[in-house]
Amino acid sequence: PSIVDNSQHIYWRPVFAQIQYECGQASGVGLGFTYAINRLRDLPSNVTENQYPTHFVWNFGNGGDGWYGVSYFHSFEIIKREGTPNVIDFGGMTGTGPEMWMTGYDKYYNAMHNRIADVYKIDLTTEEGINTLRNWIDNHLDGSEVGGVANFYTNAPYGMPTLPSGTPEAGKYVVTSWGYANHGLTISGYHDSIRWDYNSDGQYTNDIDLNGDGEITPRDWEIGGLRFANTYSGGPSWANNGFCYMTYKSCADPYGSGGIWDNAAHVLYAKAGTEPLLTAKIGISYNCRNRLRVQMGMSTDINAETPDYVIGYPIFNFQGGCQYMQGGTSNEDNKTIEIGLDITPFLNIIEPGTPARYFLILTENDPEGWAWGQMLNYSIIDYTNGAEEIICEESNVNINNNGVTRFWVNHEADYEKVEITNEVLTPATVYEPYSEQLEASGGAAPYYWSLSLI
Asked: Kindly report the CA angle at 230 between 153 and 327, in degrees rounded to 5?
């Protein structure tokens, strides 16, 4: 179609105003991820239980006090690895502020169900790329009745002109050229007939070489563009109820000469459902969280004192400033936090029913000896058959100063393994296109396939 606007669907969250430097999370999570996952679940995004907060992910990278912006790519990695709570579990879009880290195992467990499968870039310098994005917006590149939305980085727009009279959407605000990137925005749709006369010849064309490079590309187009939402400068009170147009040319022009950052839109493949099979439940009391890292380990030697495999996380990783675990430095209760981590990936390494030792690894980087705290409790929870909790015998143990402290439990997880069932593949012919559908059994469909180079 020549016009698509996905903000008209129930999956689009109403535009809101960010409060600090969380533009990447407002655009990428508050609008983008919320739309992507609710589209899969067929849920409305105008109710809090189906909305996802900005500050859960932002607060792990903002320096602890909210002084820094954080790339939405970092936030996407958190959601891919650990998920995100909804607004209700987090206590609002911003919780109690930029210092807050969420406490409560059940909230972290709920968050593990809300994940991203993959993030992709669409190059917008070519007609093919523009059409790829248009098809993504229209049909999700798979023929769906409802398409997707996208995110991009550029400058915070202001002082925009309006589309000229006598043209489609006349009087609506439009961005025709961008500056240097400091802001994240969300694309909701496109309109192939909006127009801007770049060379002031009184015509609107897509077939004249405006930049004189000898070829016709989107950098020469004066017709067509995207519709995007902005959470800055007032959010819904900005431009046209929080929305504005941008020309296709402004996507394609070189960055620094009118184009958006990297000339790219970024799109999410959310996961409709994720069921963690094995998790860790951890209680910690600590007074300077950016000097502490939490990791999980595993060994198939149930007498081992060190793990053979380690999972690191993009959260609880020497982050958040020298504050208490839940944030701040005045409320003593905030020294204590209860968290949950997904350790299901360990099951990819071992066969079902294999005895294994699961480690909690606390690493302190504190050469001055300023920080101190305790591991209050540690257990793992096996959801492969109900919810079996295996509790560590140690509790309320001091964390070693400027070193590594390990705790462990032993367990056999008898889970259902996913197996590729194809016995053979059709032979391939060199230099000819090849396609083969793999089949699988076990686990829970739908399956997500990716190429392993090992």
From this structure: 80
Tell which residue, 75, 101, 78, has the closest CA to residue 90: 101
- Measure the CA dihedral 93/98/102/108, to 10°: 60
Judge whether residue 161 has pLDDT over 80: yes
Q: Residues 391-434: pLDDT tens digits?
A: 999 999 999 999 999 999 999 999 988 999 999 999 999 999 99
Residue 136 falls in which region: left (phi positive, over 0), alpha (psi -120 to 50) or beta: alpha
**In the predicted model, what is the mean pLDDT of residues 370-388?**
96
Q: From residue 315, give the alpha-carbon distance in Å to each of 82, 97, 103, 341.
A: 9, 17, 13, 10
Given a cut of 70, whether residue 113 has pLDDT beyond it is yes
> In the 8-state DSSP scheme, what is residue 255?
B
Coil/strand/helix, residue 375: strand
The residues facing 406 across adjacent strands are: 361
- Checking if the pLDDT of 365 tops 90, the result is yes
Sequence-distant (≥ 6) Cβ neighbours of residue 437 within 8 angstroms: none
H or E stretch covering 340: strand 336-342
pLDDT of residue 444: 80
Quote the CA–CA distance of 2 and 168 in Å, as a whole number.
12
63-90 burial code (b ≥16 CB/10 A, e <16):
bbbbeebbebebbbbbbbbbbbbbbebb
Q: Residue 115 has which token pair?
A: 């994940």
SS (H, E, C) 147-206: CCCEEEEECCCCCCCECCCCCCCCCCEEECCECCCCEEEEEEEEEEEEECCCCCCCCCCC
CB 419 within 8 A of CB 440: yes
Short-list 405, 402, 393, CA closest to 294: 405
Any idea what DSSP says for residue 403? S
Q: What is the mean pLDDT of residues 375-394?
A: 97
- Return the pLDDT at 452: 77
